From TrEMBL:
Protein's name according to its UniProt entry: DUF1697 domain-containing protein
Organism taxonomic ancestry: Bacteria, Bacillati, Actinomycetota, Actinomycetes, Kitasatosporales
Pfam family for this entry, one: DUF1697
Domain of life, source organism: Bacteria
Coiled coil stretches, renumbered: none
Length: 181
């Protein structure tokens, strides 16, 4: 059995795609997963499964959510080892920053730096970003709500063909903790 985190994109934000966490827990249990827990209301679930294919887990969850709730939800599933590696590889001084200043955007596939070549990093300073293994680290000292870089990084042309979902650093750390076996 492996412990995973399911990261759902765009639910319970901005008034759309309402998904009760109790319903998400019940749905995951109905799919045969064990020790299901949710974290916050923004689409984070932790569960144990014998399935090893994270892509298959994400696709199964997405189909089940569409059937149950009538709307599409993009999902990523990551195991503890990956989540821990993302936290440990952070190129910014996470231990000295507030959780709201640092974010991780998880991607469904590896992302090449060339995808972001049209962005002029100097234009967004002191905000910065760095790429990692299927993740983008964003340092936004004034938080995501005031960030000018975050919307530029989320432009459809830059994320085309990818599932991308962002979590603040507090959530990144908590998901590492919750998936620890």
């Amino acid at each position: 059995m492996t412990t995973y985190a399911a990261l759902l994109r765009g639910i319970n934000v901005g008034g759309g795609k309402k998904l009760p966490m109790a319903g998400l827990r019940a749905l995951l249990e109905g799919l045969g997963h064990r020790e299901v827990r949710t974290y916050l209301q923004s689409g984070n679930a932790v569960f144990r499964s014998e399935e090893r294919d994270t892509g298959a887990l994400a696709a199964e969850l997405g189909r089940a959510l569409a059937r149950e709730y009538g709307f599409a939800v993009e999902c990523l599933v990551r195991d503890h080892g990956y989540l821990r590696a993302v936290a440990e590889a952070c190129p910014f001084p996470a231990e000295r920053l507030e959780g709201r200043q640092l974010h991780a955007t998880y991607y469904s596939e590896p992302v090449e730096e060339s995808r972001f070549a049209a962005l002029d990093p100097a234009q967004f300073l002191p905000e910065e970003f760095r790429l990692g293994d299927r993740v983008l680290y964003l340092y936004a000292p004034e938080g995501l709500g005031r960030s000018k870089l975050a919307p530029a990084l989320a432009r459809p042309a830059l994320t085309e063909g990818l599932i991308a979902t962002t979590r603040n650093w507090n959530t990144v750390r908590k998901l590492v903790e919750l998936t620890e076996e």
